[in-house]
Amino acid sequence: xxxxxxxxxxxxxxxxxxxxxxxxxxxxxxxxxxxxxxxxxxxxxxxxxxxxxxxxxxxxxxxxxxxxxxxxxxxxxxxxxxxxxxxxxxxxxxxxxxxxxxxxxxxxxxxxxxxxxxxxxxxxxxxxxxxxxxxxxxxxxxxxxxxxxxxxx
Length: 153
Fold this sequence. Notes:
Strands 1-3-2 form a three-stranded antiparallel beta sheet. The chain contains seven helices and three strands, in the order H-H-H-E-H-H-E-E-H-H. Helices cover 75% and strands 9% of the residues.
């Protein structure tokens, strides 16, 4: 219980930071509940069990379990067993996690798809189909350029 009081004090003192992080995370397309939970975890910087996170955020445990599952899949949190429960902690360098994801999207998604579309165009398509494929290819090429800039900075 003492640690929960300490966490509450930290969150109260750093409330503008939590709110700013929450807004930033929400811009990535995550729900408010998940954005708030991740912002709290990032500010606390200690492993938190779902019970404590629920008390700190006011969100239901089921909501938070869903968020943690998403965050784990994205590499934004990790978990470790603490007794019968799991404690979750945010990634210490979320920027590295996000850059890694962008590299993966570029290498495993965008580049192979561009290659497939180029091969499809070379194979000979009807004019309407070729026009559509070229438009998609143009959009993907723009995405590729943006991703290359982001991951190389």
